[in-house]
Recover the amino acids of this structure.
């Protein structure tokens, strides 16, 4: 790791866990408020670029990154392991929200969607497609209230309802789209936008 200003920012690292669970934690501490600098972290797989700003009254206790593709790969392996551990005579593996998407090839998935707008309890966690269909993943709390309808937005800005199916915590849209909106409410409408960032 390296930073632009190493005189006013103290950098360090430490380890937790052992073997496959070992993780590196990078510690960053400014010596006063009102400072800005950049931080670059290189690993064997990725390069991270961060912009750092120090404040007197607030700080960020921790930052972490999530990788949707890796999560699905891990989940797929976990489900396969569970399935093998049960014989036909025994009870079946309890379905998980992700089990509804079995049959998807993880290698074909494209995580090229940006989610913006309001932050209701049902705001999607992520959206991805397999080249034919779009999958919108919602948090577990989606069943705590009314689910929002999905509208596709045309290049002219016109909206239209689109066909989709609900599978567990997912909306499965039977076509690709460049922009869509989830809307709920009448007087104080909550709107979450889903934009494809790549073609």
């Amino acid at each position: 790791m390296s930073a632009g200003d190493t005189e006013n920012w103290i950098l360090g690292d430490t380890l937790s866990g052992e073997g496959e669970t070992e993780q590196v934690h990078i510690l960053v501490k400014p010596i006063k408020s009102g400072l800005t600098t950049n931080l670059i972290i290189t690993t064997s797989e990725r390069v991270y670029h961060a912009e750092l700003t120090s404040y007197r009254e607030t700080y960020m206790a921790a930052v972490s990154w999530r990788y949707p593709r890796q999560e699905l790969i891990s989940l797929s392996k976990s489900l396969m392991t569970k399935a093998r551990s049960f014989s036909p005579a025994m009870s079946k593996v309890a379905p998980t929200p992700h089990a509804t998407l079995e049959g998807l090839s993880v290698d074909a998935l494209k995580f090229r969607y940006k989610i913006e707008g309001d932050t209701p309890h049902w705001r999607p966690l992520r959206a991805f497609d397999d080249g034919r269909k779009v999958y919108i993943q919602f948090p577990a709390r989606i069943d705590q209230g009314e689910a929002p309808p999905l509208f596709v937005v045309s290049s002219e800005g016109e909206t239209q309802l689109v066909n989709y199916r609900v599978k567990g915590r997912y909306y499965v849209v039977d076509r690709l789209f460049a922009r869509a909106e989830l809307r709920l409410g009448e007087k104080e409408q909550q709107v979450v936008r889903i934009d494809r960032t790549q073609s």
About this structure: The first helix runs from residue 68 to 84. The longest strand covers residues 9-16. The CA atoms of residues 92 and 180 lie 37 Å apart. The mean pLDDT is 81.
